[in-house]
Specification:
The chain is of the alpha+beta class. The protein has four domains: 184 residues, no CATH class; 224 residues, Palm domain of DNA polymerase; 140 residues, no CATH class; 132 residues, Hypothetical protein af0941, CATH 1.10.3200. Helices cover 42% and strands 14% of the residues. The chain contains 23 helices and 20 strands. Strands 7, 8, 9, 12, 13, 14, 15 and 16 form an eight-stranded antiparallel β-sheet that branches. It has a six-stranded mixed β-sheet with strand order 4-3-2-1-5-6, sandwiched between helices. Strands 10-11 form a two-stranded antiparallel sheet. α2 crosses α5 and α21 runs antiparallel to α22. Its EC number is 2.7.7.7. It is found in: Nucleus.
Length: 793
């Protein structure tokens, strides 16, 4: 249909054809923003007082400030003209120019108002003068657009674009606010040009009008792109704003599925060779793109593969066609996964092409946030089956990745979807070259081509119990051939925080002494390894090497250290703690210091500080498994000192912290994955003396996590606890077999049936959830967990 005919008789939407979106097209969307005229409106306010700052930036002329300040002695906003010049110069040097041309200087005028309503009416009058001049308004405020639409009538005559509603850039809850608002307002205005360029690029690439890209951009763009591809293949959409997809009511009839399998691998121990920590990114994208390779590695293919060819309607009618592909409990239509894979491949191809050309492709946004889009129920195209299916692919790929590291000679200490901790067989000085080699070798494999690996940290010696309890010697310069003069020690001891305050210092000191001493013995062995080779004696065993003799000497030196220095220091420390504890209990004021702290994960009743100190310290020592006999003697001697038998029930170590973890939480800013350990991660717990809920910051981009989404995820965990308990199987108390029917009262071995998940275990977990909710100020979670816990009592 021609343009003249459309103007004469009109047209329907289905008669419109999409224009070419090739990069060589002469017609750019809105001419890439050139020759457009913008009015920038900035708004900052205080949450605790009726304080507002409105600023209207026209392309030229005065910048008009409208201020609502209830103070009797108003202070003017200082250095506006000078601040604009300085900030513009810095941003031009750092970010360069944009399609929007800023004037070199700006002059400001200020008007005071009694309320924000009168200020907005004044802004409406100013906009009325320019309503017929083809301006586009850019709003920067933490308020919703409805706030301005209701109080600025003339706003309806303009197209309106909204920048991100970050609270930090629009708050006046600082003192003095006059000096702080200058930088916030001018930085926001000078960032508008770059924001417009990025928004134009996103609009053109994803074929979405500029004013419709808002909210959570990665999720919105992914939803629309995926939905369009499904519609092109004549597939019915399950678009839904709720947590469940719209399947015509079938979504409510599906039985609840089990929790996603855990993706955390831990191997406690003492590692005397160099260990390296590797960050992992783009695992989800890589798993989808290389799903066919996963099939081939597992021996599946043909009609059972994820990429099997489409079938005809006749084949489906005869029952010969494969309708779904399954992985665990997830069933996904073949066509749906093929469309998803084609979309991801297109994004990835455009991104790689942009990197070759030296420009940033808009597909980087959706590629980086792919896993968050797949796993987030905030997505309109969220499908639990698709989420579970992609998670299964990621897990298979991750297992193959760990196997590849093991094949290259490394040992996995700890691994999750975001981080891998490897133990190498290399001495200090050669670890950096080895780390570069294994990363290059792994990513050159076809299955791991799009996974990004980065070496984050090196350890010359590592004592590892779990992610919350470890200590090591950090290698600050991996390229150095000679050992450093001063050792850098990094330790995390969550179990120490459950001891009284005086005992915490002692256990940290003795664990540090243990780590440093074992490292120095190992270091001495490495130095002797550089001496010239010596001839073997006739009495030496066949096949013996110089390395074997050095290892034998190292083992003997460590045993002597444990039997001598460590035992004496341990007994002396236990004696001091016992003496201080007895003296403190004589006085009510000092007795408070020796009380065991109650933390979110506390679930044990502890009353004997010397005993708990021995149990905790020896549990860390016993990570050196080669010397478990010697460590056992240390523990027995220490227990004898306080009058406790070695094999008594109270001498058995139990972790004092009941963990509550949320796995693979993506950052909404960079999509980096993090396992939230609410009871043991010190970065999540509020600092001492801090009021209000703590801020949870991403380790990669320093962006803040969405506490509300995390709270609702924990509420779903609580519901899953109740559901799993109610729907659990019964097992025999003697042979541990699961009950095979629903009527028999006794097992065939004459054993009685019992619960698989004990009631006391669920109550303990619910109490932990309540404690976490109280510490982190999660009122909804607290109410939900307390109500469920009260029904269990």
């Amino acid at each position: 249909m021609t343009l003249n005919r459309a103007e004469a008789i009109g047209f329907d939407l289905h008669q419109l054809e999409a224009p070419s979106v090739s990069g060589n097209s002469k017609h750019k969307y809105l001419r890439s923003g050139k020759n457009q005229k913008y009015i920038f409106i900035y708004h900052a306010c205080s949450a605790n007082a009726p304080l507002h700052v409105f600023a209207v930036f026209f392309p030229s002329g005065l910048v008009k400030l409208h201020i609502v300040d209830p103070a009797t002695r108003r202070q003017a906003i200082p250095r506006l003209r000078e601040g604009y010049t300085e900030i513009k110069k810095k941003r031009d040097e750092h970010f360069g120019s944009s399609s929007f041309v800023y004037p070199d200087t700006r002059d400001f005028t200020t008007t005071y108002h009694s309320t924000d309503i009168t200020a907005l009416k004044a802004i409406s009058r100013e906009l009325g003068v320019a309503e017929d001049q083809n301006y586009i308004i850019v709003l920067s405020s933490s308020k919703d657009n409805s706030y301005f639409e209701m109080n600025v009538p003339k706003l309806a005559r303009f197209p309106v674009l909204s920048m991100a509603k970050a609270k930090s850039a629009h708050t006046l809850d600082v003192f003095p606010w006059q000096s702080h608002v200058v930088g916030k307002m001018l930085n926001r205005y000078l960032a508008m040009g770059g924001w417009l360029d990025r928004s134009m690029a996103l609009s053109e690439y994803y074929d979405i009008p500029l004013g419709h890209i808002e909210g959570d951009q990665p999720l919105q763009l992914s939803d629309i792109t995926f939905a369009r591809r499904l519609v092109q293949q004549d597939m019915v959409l399950w678009w839904s704003s709720s947590e469940l997809p719209d399947l015509g009511g079938m979504e409510t009839d599906k039985r609840p599925t089990d929790d996603l399998p855990k993706t955390e691998f831990t191997m406690p121990g003492a590692y005397s060779h160099v260990c390296l920590e590797i960050a992992v990114r783009n695992l989800a994208i890589n798993s989808v793109v290389h799903s066919l390779v996963i099939n081939e590695l597992e021996g599946s293919g043909g009609s059972t593969a994820f990429d099997s060819v489409s079938r005809t309607l006749d084949e489906y009618a005869q029952g010969d066609g494969q309708k779904d592909i399954s992985l665990g409990e997830s069933n996904v239509p073949v066509q749906t996964f093929s469309i998803l894979k084609a979309m991801v491949k297109a994004w990835l191809t455009d991104r790689l092409q942009g990197e070759l050309e030296g420009v940033e492709c808009p597909s980087v946004l959706t590629v980086d946030h792919f896993w968050r889009w797949i796993s987030s129920s905030a997505s309109n195209m969220y499908d639990p089956s698709l989420h579970r299916f992609v998670h299964g692919l990621m897990r298979k790929t991750f297992v193959q990745l760990l196997a590849e590291f093991k094949r290259l000679g490394s040992h996995v200490i700890y691994a999750d979807f975001s981080k891998i901790l490897l133990a190498t067989s290399k001495p200090p000085g050669t670890a950096h070259a080895y780390a570069t080699y294994i990363n290059t070798a792994v990513t050159s494999h076809e299955l791991f081509q799009h996974i990004y690996l980065r070496n984050d940290c090196f350890y010359d010696y590592l004592l590892f119990m779990d992610q919350a309890n470890w200590g090591g010697i950090v290698c600050e310069n991996p390229l150095a051939l000679e050992p450093p003069e001063e050792l850098s020690i990094m330790m995390k001891l969550n179990i120490a925080e459950f001891l009284p305050q005086p005992a915490q210092k002692e256990i940290t000191s003795i664990i540090q002494y243990f780590v440093v001493s074992l490292f120095k013995i190992r270091q001495k062995t490495n130095e002797t390894a550089r001496v010239p080779l010596r001839p073997l004696q006739n009495g030496d065993p066949p096949g013996a090497t110089q390395h074997d003799f050095q290892m034998k000497d190292e083992v003997e030196n460590v045993r002597q250290f444990i039997a001598g220095k460590l035992t004496r220091r341990m007994l002396r420390t236990v004696g001091n703690i016992q003496e201080q504890y007895r003296e403190a209990m004589m006085n009510e004021e000092t007795a408070v210091e020796w009380q065991f702290p109650v933390l979110p994960g506390s679930h044990l009743h502890m009353s004997n500080p010397p005993l708990e100190f021995i149990k905790f310290a020896c549990a860390i020592f016993q990570l050196a498994k080669e010397y478990h006999v010697e460590i056992g003697l240390v523990k027995r001697n220490a227990l004898d000192l306080i009058g406790v038998k070695e094999f008594a029930s109270e001498a058995i170590f139990r972790n004092p912290c009941e963990p509550l973890k949320l796995f693979n939480v993506p950052c909404k800013h960079c999509d980096a994955l993090k396992d939230f350990d609410f009871c043991r991660d010190p970065e999540l717990l509020p600092a001492q003396g801090e009021t209000g809920p703590p801020k949870w910051v991403c380790f990669n981009c320093k962006g803040e996590y969405d506490r509300t989404l995390i709270e609702f995820s924990l509420i779903r965990v609580v519901w899953a606890m109740e559901r799993n308990f109610a729907g659990q199987d019964l097992k025999c108390s003697k042979c541990k077999q699961i009950q095979g029917d629903y009527v028999s009262r006794w097992c065939h071995c004459s054993g009685s049936y019992q619960l698989t998940i004990g009631k006391a275990e669920v109550k303990r977990k619910l109490k932990t959830v309540v404690n976490v909710a109280i510490v982190h100020s999660m009122n909804r979670l607290k109410e939900c967990a307390q109500m469920m816990l009260s029904n269990w009592l």
